[in-house]
Amino acid sequence: MTHPASHADLSANLPADLPVKLRERAAALDAADPLARYCDLFAPSEGLVAYLDGNSLGRPLTATRERLASFVDGPWAARLIRSWDEGWMDAPTELGDTLGRVALGAAPGQTVVADSTTVLLYKLARAAVDARPGRRVIVADTENFPTDRFVLQGIAAERGLELRWITPDAEAGVTPEDVAAAVGPDTALVLLSHVAYKSGYVADLPAITRIAHDAGALVLWDLCHSVGAVPLDLDADGVDLAVGCTYKYLNGGPGSPAFAYLAAGLQDEVRQPVQGWMGAADPFAMGPEYEPATGIRQLISGTPPVIGMLPMRDMLALVEEAGMPAVRAKSLALTGFAMEIADEYLTGVRVASPRDPERRGSHIMLDHPDFKRVVAEAWARGVIPDFRPPQGLRVGLSPLSTSFAELAAGLSLIRNLLG
Questions:
Q1: Strand partners of residue 367
Q2: Could you confirm whether 53 is annotated as catalytic?
Q3: Which of 110, 162, 228, 299 has the smallest number of CB atoms closer than 10 Å to its CB?
């Protein structure tokens, strides 16, 4: 099996040594999957047996090839600079509103697509601590993704603030109790990930947000590992600020721009620090002093990455068509199936992710001392998970592009490589 062009090919070409029970279980799950047809909409990958890293980089949709070509021949070549007046200027907020509606539970005017996750984290975190003058503490956790921790370390040094670290159980994640013990009248900002990048643990976003608010602090949520896979309701849950990338479950492609959410009630209070011409009230006035735009547009700094926004439009259309509840249901079915396989067939492997589906995102971490070698060999054979030190194999399952047969085939090879 070297070039599975579709979900049907994968189901028909499971490895010959796959246990019969596992083969039958995968086939039954695929047959019952209401989202199975979406797998065929993604571009085939030469030599691929199983792609188990959709939480790092989503697969491209076949439709995106035509969208990119049409963009070159259409608005870029045919309309040239006129396209700024014909849609490009509004693309960051227009696409942000679509993203908010489809995947964030956010009303219009609160989401913008621009910059990278790192840049937006800096903008919002700096703005948040400045909006709480006199408070000297930022609360974060030691298990968060390096970018989040590094950005906060820089801001703390820049503004003379204290970082108060929560050290959670790596598999249980940050709990409301952890946050309650860390925040107080001196807390300006709490920054946490909704889904932990290692274990896949889903934090109790509504409860933690309430606890931070009771202490008078703002909360910034990193949604990189949840947007497009785990339903969100930012408005209803009272979220202040959020950021996330678009190249994982939103399939925006490598380096696709990130997004930022800023609640409407804070938009007159929070001022981001990177003052660029595209975030000015009148970008083309070219005046001597910066005056920020009103509303969400104030978060923009430089020229919007218009080309980088194109691929996620196709994926957002698919997510909206499928519906986030159905996407979440398949995500849980996939991760549950992965755990079943690990428990029954992967000798010596420990599941290092939550068993409770309510606390589990769309990836799981498997633990074994030989996984560094195994992942390298699996990549050479067309099975693509990823490795996280010290000995974790992360299985990232993008619901609309992953079949149960593909998952079974991939973990079957992992089983063989373990010996």
A1: 350, 392
A2: no
A3: 162
Q: Is 248 a catalytic residue?
A: yes
Choice among 123, 248, 360, 388 that is catalytic: 248
> Both 270 and 155 in a single domain?
yes
Q: Is residue 339 part of a domain?
A: yes
Q: Rounded distance, CA 107 to CA 110, Å?
A: 7
What pLDDT shows up at residue 419? 84
Q: What is the pTM of this model?
A: 0.95
Instruction: Examine the domain organization and report whether 111 and 260 are in the same domain.
Output: yes
Active site residue 330: no
Active-site residue (options: 40, 67, 101, 145): 145
Options 201, 247, 259, 371, the catalytic residue = 247
394 is catalytic: yes
Q: Which residues of the chain have pLDDT under 70?
A: 1-15
Domain extent for 214 = 90-303
Task: Provide the CATH number for the domain around residue 100.
Answer: 3.40.640.10
